[in-house]
Amino acid sequence: MVNNEEMRKIQFTGKSSYIVSLPKQWIIEMGLKQGDQVAVVRQGISALQIVPLKHHNKPAGAEDATIEIKQDDEGSVIIRKLISLYLLGFSIMNVKPKLGRLKPSQRNAVKDAVKGMLMGTEIIADSTEGITIQVLINLFELSVDGALKRMLIIAKSMQNDALLALVEANYDLAREVINSDDEVDRFSFYIIRQLKIAIQNEHLLKEMGIESPHHCLGYRLIVKNIERVGDHATAIAKDLLEFKKPIRKSILEPIQEMNSFSLSVLDEACLSLFKRDFSQAERTVEKTLEISRYEKKILDSIRALRNDEESYRVRRMNENIRRISEYASDIAEIVLNMTIEKTLRKQ
Predict the structure, then answer these.
(1) Whole-model pTM?
(2) Which of 9, 22, 173, 334 is an S-S bond match for 165, by CB 3.0 to 4.6 Å?
(3) Same domain flag for 217 and 329
(4) Does 72 share its domain with 24?
């Protein structure tokens, strides 16, 4: 392991100044020279952080960015560009026409993105000449773990509601499930933005409760897995709207059992993340293997069906629910990788 610690003596100069020399290697790596400024930031009671002024606060999204919109750009194109700027950590985003004025449909696309997809954003200027969006949410108002918990709650609720809609042949509830997917995406974008900002600033990383930059990759994969849970719930809801037929009760019962099991192991996997619990993550990986028992019940019930259409639908639901258990296993394995060092230190 590389030792990053160097001892330096405090020296007294003049009548009232104390000075400490900086390591030469660090100066070279930062590209600094005589006369450059550094920010000295007090961290708690006994620590100071020294940051080159050219790096100071940049990761927190202090800069603004502008995208130019062509006359023939569709709303989906504009939204994708906005999401990219949001994920990069910009706090001010300007949308301007390359020529002429923004079309009403283009302005509406921007407003829809701000309202439904980009958490913590507000439009602070709006005209045919351009739109300015500002990210108002503070970096620490909603932690990564806090946002992840809310995202998990929504995704699980979607999955349960999708099956309830199937049981009741409730088409309105199925549509609500599909609409809720945007809310899952909002939290996903927010978390990715926070990780992007924090990975460039070690102090912010620690403030967020993330121990190491490489843990950000683990969080990114976990976010993707939870986002996919919402996608599977949406797929089940769309099945009901597509076929307009309920599934018989005798088939639904094993499906509901499998769903309850998959969501329970997903809960346990995420709890091991929030607790940084290696042992629980290990138990969760083992427990997810039990999914085969539930899957067997569903496949056995399919064999008794003579309706090819219903058999096809049940197989698709089985696949959607089984995937959730696999995501739980993936999340638990990520937690194992994130916590293994602590386990080794204890030993």
Answers:
(1) 0.78
(2) 173
(3) yes
(4) no
